[in-house]
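Q: Hi! First time asking for a complex rather than a single chain. Here are the components, and I think there are two in total. Is that enough to go on?
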Amino acid sequence: VAADDAAPATRPAGYAFARGALDRAAELRADAARLAELAVAPGSRLLPVRADGRILVDTGRGQLAAQPATNVDADVTFLGLQGADAWFARSVPADTPTPDPTLRWLDLRGAAATLPADEAATAAYARALLHWQSRKRWCGVCGAPTRLGEAGHRAQCTDAACGAQYFPRTDPAIIVVVDDGAGRILLGRQPSWPEKRYSTLAGFVEPGETLEDAVRREVAEESGVRVGPVEYLASQPWPFPASLMLGFHGRAVGGELVVGSELADARWFDGAALPELIASGELTLPPALSISFHLVDHWFQRRYGRHLQPGPVFATR
Amino acid sequence: VAADDAAPATRPAGYAFARGALDRAAELRADAARLAELAVAPGSRLLPVRADGRILVDTGRGQLAAQPATNVDADVTFLGLQGADAWFARSVPADTPTPDPTLRWLDLRGAAATLPADEAATAAYARALLHWQSRKRWCGVCGAPTRLGEAGHRAQCTDAACGAQYFPRTDPAIIVVVDDGAGRILLGRQPSWPEKRYSTLAGFVEPGETLEDAVRREVAEESGVRVGPVEYLASQPWPFPASLMLGFHGRAVGGELVVGSELADARWFDGAALPELIASGELTLPPALSISFHLVDHWFQRRYGRHLQPGPVFATR
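A: Yes, that's all I need. Here is the structure of the assembled complex.
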């Protein structure tokens, strides 16, 4: 049973961006009067997000450097409520300097390493929503400009004859720890990664495809391995820029290992050897902020009763 | 364990659009020479999809009325391989008449009721992909026209300075059968539905949200009910126009039932009374093509050892 309140060992946990604490209060998105009141309330906060995806962080205090929200206009996005306090977000240019030497613009991986889990999730939410807005300035149907509505949660074509509406996009992607049922685990590495770094296989779900079919197709494409039974384990928002990682376990039932065109390598690792490979530097796993590490660690922990060492964070898009 | 090859009773099954049999052969999407060869091969097929989403069906034979594919040009989309035979799709105007009195343009619900499961899944895949193309003719970043590439699976901005790329969109949505652990099940109805029709609650996953949080948020928004443990069960492509339904069971742990603004009604039903309510016409469930029916039926079947009667198909968008 993939119940997410089950005992910790039964599900991957501890990855970033997944512990959001805001009440999204969607019913307020169309309530301009209430939002205007909230904007000037003492506890309300405005989170600036740079166009390059960086978030303003008070690294000394280890918290988001959200400013008091002083006004609500067409450019502001309502994120939700924290108790009675409203959180807003606004996009600012990529070259915006830090307003104060105690504050820093951090990318989301850096923010996740610095912030409490709930604030990292708020940052990821804000970043994903504002990135979508930046890609939806013009109507894809007719080419007219769009206008944001619902406090940043809808884009509408300004051409009355077209009137197309758009809602924030989230790209579902499967990510899967594959084993062979005899103690071996299938990991791969992308060409852009540091040497010796390996991770679980992953890929976007395509139109007209179930999650389960996407798991089997991606593993076959990237490794030639045929997956039979699959089990959903957990999910993680992954705002690079707009993915939702859907974590699975898959059992290999056949297929010759052939490295697909998207990977630099894929191979079977003996589970019992993982701690030594990691300790000796022969293998680096993904960082603890990613669900990929926790899928591997969860598999290892269920089998060997202890945890693995996550790898360091390195910058990618 | 939510393994999709487990015994039938352990997972919902039998809904439409989920049994795709095409090999998507993504490696061929950039291989223009091979696609041109495939297009004139005797077994290749071209599936026309009307701009209103209707698919050409040979209702007498109960199969897709795909035509021989005679050429591959910039407007054709490669769907995949069935054995050695290629399937292509092409969008045609909404007023395209049927080319033959034995063929009919059916919407996807009608097609699902007529076609074998694998052909209904192909139709849903083609429809979802072509709908995405129709919404991605202009670049959302800069307003320039886009051009399709990768045999219909990518759109690229034609402005060289922008060059934004877009990939097919799939909107993840949760759909959840909520029970109270004491034999009652929570169902709701939308204002546009026929009277007495009730179904499971559902809603889109938002940016920066886990599936599990989306389940709890949607149920709270629509019914006031607080959900604790959740369990993933199964997924269904739902091309109306581009959703992916992620089916869950959720256990209510509190909250007063208050009908949310999106629903006409929501109420607790006594599980034991469902067959009689359905037989007497007091309750109509969703049709058998939807995962919503199968989530309810699966819950009932686990508890009472028998199946429920699905409702009729009615047209919605």
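A: Residues 117-134 of chain A form the longest helix (18 residues). Let me know if you'd like any chain examined more closely.
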